[in-house]
Amino acid sequence: xxxxxxxxxxxxxxxxxxxxxxxxxxxxxxxxxxxxxxxxxxxxxxxxxxxxxxxxxxxxxxxxxxxxxxxxxxxxxxxxxxxxxxxxxxxxxxxxxxxxxxxxxxxxxxxxxxxxxxxxxxxxxxxxxxxxxxxxxxxxxxxxxxxxxxxxxxxxxxxxxxxxxx
Length: 166
Description:
alpha+beta, six-stranded antiparallel β-sheet, 31% helix
C-alpha cells in the first residue's frame, strides 16, 4: 500500500471512529431525550426525530401547489416519555428498520425509521479494518528464523542465506 493511500485510509478510519462514537452517544441519549430538528420550504416539511434508539426521517410535501408555508427551521429537545417511542406508529418493522407512506387530504408523507445501532455498525467498519491492517503489519516477522538476519527487502527472501519467508 502506498504512503498516501495508507495515510488517507488512516485519516478516514480516524474520522469514521469519531462518527462511530457520536452515533453511540446519540443511541444512548435517544433513550432519555427526544431530539427533533426540521425545516420547511414552500410548504414541504422535512424533519428528523431521534428517540428510543432510532432516527426517523419524515418528508412531507403538499398535494396542491397553492399551499405555501414560510421558510423556516426548528429544533427541540425534551425528555422521553413514550415507552414505545417511534416504533408504535409503523405497521411493519424489521430489526428497527421501517417505512411508512401516508396520504392525507393536504399532504403526502414518507417516513423512514433507521435504528441508531445501524449507524454505529456502519461507521465502525473502517476502524476495524484499520486495526486489522495495523495488527497484521506489526505481527509480521522481521528476522530470518534460519540465520537471524533482519528482513528489509520486499522480495520475501533473506538477503544473507536466501531463505524464503511468508
